[in-house]
Amino acid sequence: MDVRKIITFTFLSVIIALIAGLSACERVSQITQPTTPQMAEPSEEISIGVVLSLTGRLADSFGIPISQGFELARSEINAAHPSGTKLNFIIQDDQSTIDGAVEAFNKLISQEGVSVILGPATSSQTEMAFPVAQGNQVVAISPTSSARGLSALGDFVFRVALTTDKLIPPGIEVTQTKLGYQRAATMYDETDLFSTDGDASVREVLAANEVKVIGTETFQGGDTDFSEQLTRIQTLNPDVIFVSCLSPEKPGILMQGHELGISAPFIVRTLTAADVQAAGAAAEGAITFVGWGAAVDTPGNKAFVENYSDKFGMEPINYAARAYATLHILAEAIANAPSTNAASIRDALANIKDLDTILGKFSFNADGDAVYDEKVLIVKDGELVRFE
Question: Using an 8 Å Cβ cutoff, are 378 and 285 in contact?
Answer without folding.
Answer: yes
